[in-house]
Amino acid sequence: MVVMNDTQHIRDAVFFEGTDVRQRLSRFWILITLASIIAAAGVAADSTATVIGAMIVAPLMTPILGTMLSVVLTDRTNLIRSLLHVAGGALVAVAIAAMIVAVSISLGATSISVVRDTTREAHTLAAARSFGNAVGWTTGNVTTRNGVVLVHMEGPPPLPNTDRLRTELEQRGVDPTEVHVELVPARLVTFD
Fold first, then answer.
1. pLDDT tens string 92-111
2. For residue 76, which of 84, 170, 187, 44 has the smallest C-alpha distance?
3. Rounded to two decimals, what is the model's pTM?
4. What is the pLDDT of residues 37-54, one digit of tens each?
5. Measured distance CA(30)–CA(32) in Å, rounded
6. DSSP code string of the chain
7. Which percentage of the chain shows pLDDT scores above 90?
8. At CA 86, angle to CA 89 and CA 79, rounded to 5?
């Protein structure tokens, strides 16, 4: 029977040593490579769920826990080994992400659209703030989903005429048909 405080059991779970070291190392590097590919693809596709899925696949917690256990046990060899696995895993992830970004840019894929969307969001935010200042409304979140810029604005009733916002967007090079604005009238309530 294995008890939770059995040191050997814990060492076997988090250190890359023992008879099955080759199998554990190959599993670690295969999983870190797959997780890096999944994460980079998720970032390129602007998919939060895919990035979270990559975190579930990533095996980096094992050497991180190995680092912690090495410090507790004052095991210098496994401390160095665990730190090298953490650093190596991180470097592999960065290298794979760089390769995927390079490929997606050369293919004109989503990385370019992320830059375009960010620029478009900045221009839309500037237009919305200018419009909001003119009509007494505040600008909240500005995000892009499925190629459409979403703007949240709040202010006192009645709803303002949005022709000025359309003009502000056009002056900044943003196509108004690619912008959805949520105007939320707010009332101030005071208690005497």
1. 999 998 888 777 766 655 54
2. 84
3. 0.54
4. 998 888 777 778 888 989
5. 6
6. ---TT-HHHHHHHHSS-STTHHHHHHHHHHHHHHHHHHHHHHHHTT-HHHHHHHHHH--THHHHHHHHHHHHHT-HHHHHHHHHHHHHHHHHHHHHHHHHHHHHHHTT-HHHHHHHHHHHHHHHHHHHHHHHHHHT-EEEEEEEETTEEEEEEEESSSPPPTHHHHHHHHHTT--GGGEEEEEEE-------
7. 26
8. 150
Tokens matching residue 155 = 């202010």
CA distance 19 to 6: 19
Q: Residue 158, preceding bond cis, omega within 30 degrees?
A: yes
Per-position b or e across 70-80, b if 16+ CB within 10 A of its CB? beeeebeebbe
Query: 190: which 2 tokens?
Result: 């005071």
User: Which pair of structure tokens corresponds to residue 86?
Assistant: 């953490």
The position carrying tokens 């596709």 is: 45
